[in-house]
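Lab notebook, bench 4. The sequencing result for the construct came back, and we need a structural model before the next group meeting so we can plan mutations. Quick request posted to the team channel:

Model the 3D structure of this chain.
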Amino acid sequence: MYRNDGFRELDRRESLRLLATAAIGRIVHTRQALPAVLPVNFRLDHDGAVVLRTSAASELARAVDGTVVAFEADEVDRVAGAGWSVVVTGAAEVVTDPREHRRLLERGPRSWVPVPARQEVFIRILPELVTGREVIGGHAPHTAGLGS
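Done. Here's the predicted structure in token form:
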């Protein structure tokens, strides 16, 4: 972060607290050697891991298992010119432990797309690096055509 750039750096605890309030985030992974970004719903687990739920046959599950990914979520108030953004970077893994899978079936995120439970998998992103920033002293958005 640069000093006086209009943002306040958030510590890990505050970043994870804000992240837990978001409903939608974006997972960033590699697809055919290029960056790919996919919006997903998620849940923050008790240990700070980001948990996604998807079909075992999905391209996402195959692409991220065992790789390092980034996950970002934010909240922006355009009128007030305020908001925050949190990025979690870490290894992604498909949950294979049967007890953990059962626990996540009850407490994990719900899938957007109806998939039979036996075909669903959970992906955990371990929070190795957590960064966050908040807009401080925001400005109202510029609106073209209003004589400003």
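Residues 98-107 form the longest helix (10 residues).
Will bring this to the meeting.
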